[in-house]
Design a protein that fits this description.
Radius of gyration: 14 Å
Distance between the termini: 32 Å
Shape: globular
Structural class: alpha+beta
Strand order of the largest sheet: 1-2-3-4
Number of strands: 4
Helix content: 25-40%
Strand content: 25-35%
Largest sheet: 4 strands, antiparallel
Length: 105
Amino acid sequence: MTLPLPTARLSFRQLTADDLDFLAALLSHPEVMRYYPKPLSRPEALAWIERQCWRYQTHGHGLWLITERQTGAPVGQVGLVTQVVDDVPEPEVGYLLHHPFWHLG
């Protein structure tokens, strides 16, 4: 499994259960989840992390945690996932950035 290359400001790593506090805040935010059926609860956020771990093992990729390189603070997630569209598996680049980071310059 290959992680995305770090940028000047960001690094990427696999999600773990230790990321639950951040992911629960991210996935429960109404604006972040505007285009999803609904914001997720804390137990649903844990299931989200478990699904990404399954994807890493099964497909070799999933959604990676995005962190600030200097501080290690999480800002969101990005990665390649497979979505089923009209019964056909299709690759999709997915991303979610936490609301506090939407307006940084």
